[in-house]
Design the sequence.
């Protein structure tokens, strides 16, 4: 039985992981958080070196943003077989490097700026990293990235401000998945 692949993207702090895990659980799909996948491939080393060894999913470390730099080609190689099988909810804040053929729906979560600011601040984001992520949300950067990377009809923005938004989104996505399954099996 064929099952759809779902991409959940958006600025850090919008609720991708919360939605993705719950959606995968309710829909019987597998869940992949690309950031966690890369950390596992890295051996979950807390302080990554500036230059990472070959075969890992990071290609370096960004001192300015205090975060590792994902090796997008290696991530795609790592995920290719799993994505071609279908039935995956993929969670990552960027999306333009994933192959278009992978996804049946792309969901861009959006959060009001004041809420997002508080969420990111509580995660320890400060300075340029905090401001750049807020600007990313204000200017709809990830939505624009999604509509320029995938067929516009599969890209959907969803509000992600409250627990009620989460439930509404889950109900709506579950209805879509059920319809997709009927139409494609």
Sequence:
């Amino acid at each position: 039985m064929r099952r759809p692949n779902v991409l959940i993207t958006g600025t850090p702090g919008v609720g991708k992981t919360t939605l993705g895990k719950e959606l995968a659980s309710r829909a019987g799909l597998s869940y992949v958080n690309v950031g966690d996948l890369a950390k596992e491939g890295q051996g979950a080393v807390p302080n990554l070196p500036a230059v990472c060894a070959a075969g890992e999913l990071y290609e370096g470390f960004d001192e300015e943003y205090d975060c590792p730099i994902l090796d997008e080609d290696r991530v795609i190689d790592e995920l290719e077989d799993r994505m071609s099988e279908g039935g995956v909810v993929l969670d990552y804040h960027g999306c333009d490097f994933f192959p278009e053929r992978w996804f049946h729906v792309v969901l861009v979560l959006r959060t009001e700026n004041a809420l997002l600011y508080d969420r990111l601040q509580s995660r320890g984001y400060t300075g340029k990293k905090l401001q750049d992520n807020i600007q990313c949300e204000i200017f709809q950067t990830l939505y624009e990235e999604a509509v320029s990377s995938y067929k516009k009809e599969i890209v959907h923005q969803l509000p992600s401000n409250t627990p009620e938004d989460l439930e509404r989104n889950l109900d709506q996505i579950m209805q879509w998945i059920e319809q997709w399954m009927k139409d494609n099996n």
